Automatic annotation (TrEMBL):
Source superkingdom: Eukaryota
Residues spanning the signal sequence: none
The keyword Transmembrane helix appears for this protein: yes
Record protein name field: O-acyltransferase like protein-like
Membrane-crossing residue ranges in chain numbering: 6-23, 32-51, 71-96, 117-140, 146-167
Keywords for the protein's UniProt record, in alphabetical order: Membrane, Transmembrane, Transmembrane helix
Amino acid sequence: MTPWCRANSYLVGVWAGLLLFTVQGKILRMKLWQAILGWLLSAAVALAVLYGMADYDTLEDPVLLPVAPSIIYAGFSRASWCAALVWVVFACHTGYGGPINTFLSHPSWQPMSRLTFAMYLTCFPIQIIYPGLIYIPFYINHLNSVLLTCGFLFIGGIAAVLLSLMVEGPILGLEKILLKRPGRGIKEPETTTTQRT
């Protein structure tokens, strides 16, 4: 509802796109300690964003977060998370991903990767509609949260497949026809000439 609150994530994404564009087609040499340091820093930042507020994020004994840490966390958590993900993309793109690159680039992820944006678009409306359809008190606990999450993802996945087939597929087909990109299209056969002696 407030897109300006996520502007720092967008800016990190723009910076990451520029970074990947500048290294495209170039061989980037890093020393082993630099790559390991990048992975360790990325993991530390991601874990700090995920678990840094664990003491304040409990249902049993809620504790109010002081104002200064709350402002710092709200201001930097999204950008820090995005920066950690930028390292993963950058390392995998430049050949320093190792087994993580092998895992993430496995072909079995391709169908799901095509549906992620459609699931992003469909799951939120389902989550908004659901509370308006129940007429009993809803108690929040871990089991209910897990069941709701699985249900939202399942129904959102079905809606995402339908949305992708009805909208994204035809538009990608039109894009392939209308916008010619290098490397696409029919290759002309190579002609060979023979000399007579």
